[in-house]
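Researcher: Let's continue the batch. This sequence belongs to Tyrosine recombinase XerC, and it's 379 residues. Same format as the previous ones, please.
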Amino acid sequence: MKSKSSVHPIRKRGSGSVVTSRGRFIAVIALPKVNGRRRSKCFYESSYEAAERRLTENLPQLGRESRTRQTVGAMLDLYLGSRKRELAASSWHSDRRRLITWVRPAIGRMLVTEVGPLQIERLLSVAALSGVRPRTLQAIYQVTRHSFEFAVRVGLRSDNPCNAVPRPRVPLADHSPLTRSEVHQLLANVDSRQFRNFYDLAIQTGARQGELRALWWRDVHLEQGDMLIQASLCDAEGKPIRKPPKTRCGRRKVVLTRSAIEALMDQKRYLEDRRLPIDGFVFKSRSGRALSKSSIQKQFKSTLRRAGLPSVRFHDLRHTHATLMLEAGVHVKVVQERLGHSSSQITLDFYSHVMPSMQEEGVRQFENYLSTAKLCHEG
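Model: Same format as before. Here are the structure tokens for Tyrosine recombinase XerC:
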């Protein structure tokens, strides 16, 4: 049995350790992994007290050196681990994919302290020359910037190299709303009842594709003439993930038009004809799962070709709803609430192209109103 004096005290986590081997005392200081491999620094002494002194003398210096010797690849692993607790699953998977595809191959083997603005510029240039879209390039820049902000926060370096690199610009989106005649032309050329109902509901409500994919029958109130939008479906690593709206205004009640109610009633009959349950997802496959994004896109593109319409995005059906409502004279506040925008200013910024014609019509209405009052006064 060991004497009380031979029992060594337990050291705090991260302060090194002392082990014995063949009568020698070894002071061990763990260092950060490099390329997934464990590393450590060992000092061999003849007594426990001497090994303790070695730890006390070398731990501060090695701690500083280990932080400066951290590779970008190891730092990105730490960053993703910390962000997984904060981000939605789909956003986390998107960030991870961009880091693995673009950032890690370019600078992953470099030390965190070696990366400067020049390396960030080269990273973005390689991505741009590979043909990525401007919005994707901006997303690569953003996740790189956030990862180095994390490195500064945890003491791996003193500054963020991305601060000296301008953020890639994204040109304003070119909205391509359909006209009233093009809407009827589109719906007349859909060769599937379910997809026709899906497109019609998108045009009649302005809901996003993910919001319609996530729509449940329990949120549809045909008697009251409205539906609740409470979630959206997005794909992460090939799997659909249901998530709540990003903002409070995104969770909303949308009053249904007669055409929207007819589309939902026809969708119910469609499911009954195929002996599928009228519960769960409103739009579903034969297996009862939500419609996949790829099947919607494929069907939409083929419908546009059959209808002889220009190649527009599915999201342009949302712009079609907003544009036609504004052209019909609906107040911008109503349009904002239907779209789930957090403010009317966002709606005005998106659809400013509709405003000139609305202003001309408003001037004519004002002029007629004032002229009528003048005639009444003279009479």
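Researcher: Any comment?
Model: Residues 273 and 355 are 45 Å apart (CA to CA).
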